[in-house]
């Protein structure tokens, strides 16, 4: 039976990338529909009336929003290459870290919106979040957060191996160095070695160019906001 | 085999109540350990080093933190009275709403911390969150968010039927009225009828007394914060 799988996304969105990586890991064919954030399609608004955001997965006409919910759905629907361990306690551990990482993702992009004191403060919070992951997520003993195979929490964290690097390059800051975060740095290497990941990353220069423009926009918005 | 199940909690915490309700619904026996938030036990800090917060479930010596992660673990470990539908798409729908509700819970308690303009603003956001749930969560057609049985998203939302009411009584505001939110109001009735819920609610006067003290503390803190 031919399945109908569509992803409404934005190529530069870390949340979209999670979904793309999961489908590629599982070998699921899908149609990708790129959205224009300044002119969202009616279909996107209809499929995700609560958040009106990408990504949305549409499977046989039925829409699912929220990247972490989509990942769990993908894992249940296409069980090959499981993203969650079989054991309930280990699953809980992966879900705990997935939630931690998901909740930190938007916060951790804040440094990129601001300069000056606000940027400093946001950067400190990033170091603190990374420190918690470095110390508590068990990466000193495992290749990936869920064990020795890539899983749900790794896909959630994946953006730090690519988007955070691109954002950092624009600003001239590097968060995950081997000195500061040796385990996260090794994890990054392990993550980027997986074919479904490395073959499905936007080119780094392309991302840097995109975020350079974004950065200008954010700073202009802040200026506007502060002066009116 | 005797199972060893412990809950580290706080009786007035909506997050603790979710876990208690789930265990009661499933008929799982457990030992309850009340924490003092101003003098947390070493065990709590050891079991939840990332957040240092209740609730923590400890099952045969293994700790799990984060109420929504705990609920999924409980549902997988004790499958009787399932909290999630069997069908993957319906599961995704319940997980979507559970996440929405969980993320709004802390925000929706903000109105209680403030007065004046800040309170007004927080209250407006509450009406908006409730409006989204009233309109989009499908409660016009179902007794509960997941269908005709109580489930994960209902346990997440449960605090609005009790804690939000108590907070509202302290301040003199009622959010979920039959006029403003008829479907949420009916849901509240359905929710409070379930024996595992109604037999495991703190007495309303007890909650009102607790939140009256909390309110004084919050306002004193704001005053201190604004004037120093």
Automatic annotation (TrEMBL), chains A, B:
A GO MF annotation of the entry reads: glutathione transferase activity
Q: What class of enzyme is it?
A: transferase
Q: Which InterPro entries match?
A: Glutathione-S-Trfase_C-like, Glutathione-S-Trfase_C_sf, Glutathione_S-Trfase, Glutathione_S-Trfase_N, GST_C, GST_C_Tau, Omega/Tau-like, Thioredoxin-like_sf
Q: Which CDD domains match?
A: GST_C_Tau (cd03185), GST_N_Tau (cd03058)
Q: Which residues form the GST C-terminal domain?
A: 87-218
Reaction equations catalysed: RX + glutathione = an S-substituted glutathione + a halide anion + H(+)
The EC number of this protein is 2.5.1.18
Q: Which residues form the GST N-terminal domain?
A: 3-82
Q: Could you tell me the keywords of this UniProt record? A: Transferase
Q: What cellular component terms from Gene Ontology apply here?
A: cytoplasm
Q: Name one Pfam family in it.
A: GST_C
Q: Which Gene3D superfamilies match?
A: 1.20.1050.10, Glutaredoxin
Q: Which PROSITE patterns does UniProt cross-reference here? A: GST_CTER, GST_NTER
GO BP terms: namely: glutathione metabolic process
> What family classification does the UniProt entry report for this protein?
Belongs to the GST superfamily.
Q: Which PANTHER family match?
A: GLUTATHIONE S-TRANSFERASE, GST, SUPERFAMILY, GST DOMAIN CONTAINING (PTHR11260), GLUTATHIONE TRANSFERASE (PTHR11260:SF774)
Q: What is this protein called?
A: glutathione transferase
Give the lineage: Eukaryota, Viridiplantae, Streptophyta, Embryophyta, Tracheophyta
